[in-house]
Amino acid sequence: MHTLLPHSLILRYPSHPPLLSTMASSLTLPSISLKKLHSPPTRSQPLLPPNSICFRNGVQNFGLKHSDRSRVFMSVSVGSQTAVDDALFSDYKPSTAFLFPGQGAQAVGMGKEAQNVPAAASLYKKANDMLGFDLLDICINGPKEKLDSTVISQPAIYVTSLAAVELLRTRDGGQQIIDSVDVTCGLSLGEYTALAFAGAFSFEDGLKLVKLRGEAMQEAADAAKSAMVSVIGLDSEKVQQLCDAANQEVPEAEGVQIANYLCTGNYAVSGGIKGIEAVEAKAKSFKARMTVRLAVAGAFHTGFMEPAVSRLEAALAATEIRTPRIPVISNVDAQPHADPDTIRKILARQVTSPVQWETTVKTLLTKGLKKSYELGPGKVIAGIVKRMDKGAEIENLGA
């Protein structure tokens, strides 16, 4: 989660343990063919509604470039199956990015503006039907305690962020902005939103995954007492030293680690209650400006979330995942992945792996990102980007 404090950005949100190494596809690619697909639909390529956030890249194809009227795809056939080189997007050159917020960005009243746009309002209606409760009412009217709960806030932010895309679509020049986006990513939960926007899975499948993810993380948090704290004013090396010092004083089961690498001066630490208390007690001696205990269910993005992994793995295995039409940067390794099976593995481990947001933003900026948009509730991501590059051009688009 994340929230904003004076002159600082505070992550009010869960984070992940051992960093997962990049998983490149080991499949060989024996044959490659280029096909041009024109806009008229075929029986295997159904026509999508004009405002749909699902895109027409098939399971066996991945986009090289796209336009309104035609797209170029490359299929790689291996017998009766299709393999995708996971390194397809490794040389991506970002120009325009969509950035999606994570848990902690929620605020009572979000989603109200979206009701003025039919395509956006329909997302909430679908969500209400699928979830079995009135998500929109909680978004608009609260109460805050209910909206802040993990099982509610995750689907609420996912839906509201995609509703923000639909609001943008109706704005003058909005469709052109959407078409120009060539990279996307999201902060933890926001990675699911980014994958839905990029067509890796449908809005409905993404919502099912996010709902289950919230429930599984809440259950894991309930199983062991743990917490998170933001450490403000230190670089990552100093925060690591602080964690090491705290871990020397508590049992291994109460240990702490950096769970979210947000930006210099703002890192979230997760772990057992005693470990978090030791971090808070020692922070001043390490010259930290302050610590802020986060209002989350437990030590997200660490091994404390391990019980959630098997449930996520099963759900992801049953979900149709396609190669994204544009690069989606992973929180786990700050890299884009093209292979659906790799995306499944990455998402399953994401809840136990530290969020590499600082590296992600630095990489985008280094690669020449010109303009980015934060879509959804809150303005935390925009603050992070500005903190890392005061000249960066970023716009907030809520719903």
Overall 3D geometry? globular
Order of helices and strands: EEEEEEEHHHHHEHHEHEEHEHEHHEHE
Q: Determine Rg (CA atoms, Å).
A: 20 Å
Strand order of the largest sheet: 13-8-7-14-15
The proportion of residues in beta strands is 15-25%
Give the count of helical stretches: 13
Helical content class: 25-40%
- The count of strands amounts to 15
Gap between N and C termini: 19 Å
**Structural class computed from helices and strand pairing:** alpha/beta
Which blocks of ≥5 consecutive residues have pLDDT under 50? 2-80
| Biggest sheet descriptor | 5 strands, parallel
Mean pLDDT: 84
Task: Report on this structure.
With 399 residues, the protein is an alpha/beta fold. The protein has 13 helices and 15 strands. It has helices at residues 118-131, 135-141, 144-148, 150-170, 174-180, 189-197, 203-223, 236-247, 273-282, 306-317, 340-350, 357-366, 380-388; strands spanning 3-5, 8-10, 31-38, 62-66, 70-78, 81-82, 96-100, 183-186, 226-232, 256-263, 266-272, 290-293, 328-329, 371-375, 394-397. Strands 13-8-7-14-15 form a 5-stranded parallel β-sheet, sandwiched between helices. Strands 3, 4, 5 and 6 form a 4-stranded antiparallel β-sheet that branches. A 4-stranded antiparallel β-sheet has the order 10-11-9-12. α13 (380-388) links the parallel β14 (371-375) and β15. α6 (189-197) packs antiparallel against α7 (203-223). The two termini are 19 Å apart. Mean pLDDT is 84; it is low at 2-80.
